[in-house]
Amino acid sequence: MLQHVRFTTAGESHGKGTLVILEGVPAGLPITPLDIARDLARRQLGYGRGGRMDIEKDAGEVLSGIRLGETLGSPVAIWIRNRDHSNWEVAMAVDARTGADDEELRRVFLPRPGHADLVGMLKYDRADARDILERSSARETSARVAAGAVARRLLAELGVSIGSHVTRIGAETAQRPEEWPSDLNEASDASELRCLDPAAEDRMKMAIDAARDAGDTLGGEYEVVATGLPVGLGSHVSWDRRLDGRLAGALMSIQAMKGVEIGLGFEAARRRGSSVHDEIVADPSLERTGGFHRTGNHAGGLEGGTTTGEPLVARVAMKPLSSLTRPLTSVDVRTGEAAGAVRERSDVCAVPAAAVVGEAMLALVLADAMVEKFGGDSLGETRANLEAYLQRAGERARRWE
Fold first, then answer.
1. Predicted confidence (pLDDT) per residue in 275-288, tens digit
2. Do 110 and 339 meet the contact criterion of CB atoms below 8 Å apart?
3. pLDDT in tens, 62-102
4. Longest alpha-carbon distance in the chain
5. What DSSP string runs through 44-101?
6. Per-domain residue ranges of the chain
7. Interhelix angle for 351-374 vs 141-157, to 10°?
8. Are 243 and 306 in contact (CB under 8 A)?
9. Which CATH superfamily is domain 6-396 in?
10. Model-wide pTM > 0.90
11. How far apart are the first and last CA of the chain?
């Protein structure tokens, strides 16, 4: 499928930095470095994060594509410098360091279970897992979040808001609020775990502390939510245009994610159809849904791979991180002998940060779908096309008034 808004990232975890190039953003989008820095800072927060968050203070430097506070329509390039690189200049040198030993080069011969280390070494024929783990590290998500901040800004100009919150850490589950906060991120960011249930948050913190004491890690679940979407993004006509598939693929591409549910998700498979499908009623006042309303949102805002105009809700499952302070058994790739896996600096729990990355991926997928549907080389043209579409979609409903 042709992507209209697309991005690519480059960089290693302890290299000089990470770079993202974002294409397809219409010209005239107002954006500032603060918009990017704000989301990068949110990605670094959360109870259970490791020591590297005390070193890196990500901001993002715009290299191209933005002038005088507006996008130009050309590719946007953003550079996020790794402050910790100063401690890794020998190990991550571009040129060969023939005189350096394995310790100086920080070579890794004990791959971590659950990580890309071993499969990457075999696939790319590398004797040192450092060549794999530097790129497979979740440090790469800083570039995604920078690109997602631009996509989020585009969506905001078109009336769409994106937020997230944590629903589970390990075995501890949060209760959903009876009513969604008017600003989901404002409410969830006030919590160290980005959780909307204070009682559950206390239990989650105790579970994280217990895992830390045991030299272990914890995963969990989070939800990403988009509101204000118009009906009609995505399509049922071809498999690769279905928005649920595109969204699931994007969220699953985040490091350590193991499952994605839309709306009820797997729970829908356990119920009868009468308690799953959202009944439809007429409501001419609802412009973005074409004058219709669902009495529930079990579908999570998507039917037939297409947005309904109801809130889009996706739930994502993250596995526990694979870098443990009490390593699991591995094999020394030089000798074939059993040994403990390498220990790399890591977090005990990074689910709150992963939710911010999930927001970025949701924003990028939806920005692509918006530009796909409404086109436009400038923000003004895109907005005008959206308004004309909504006006035509609402003509049917206005006849009922």
1. 999 999 998 889 89
2. yes
3. 999 999 999 999 999 999 999 989 999 999 999 999 889 99
4. 81
5. T--TT--GGGGT-----EEEESEETTEE-SSPEEEEEE-GGGGG-TTTT-SS--TT--
6. 6-396
7. 50
8. yes
9. Chorismate synthase AroC (3.60.150.10)
10. yes
11. 40
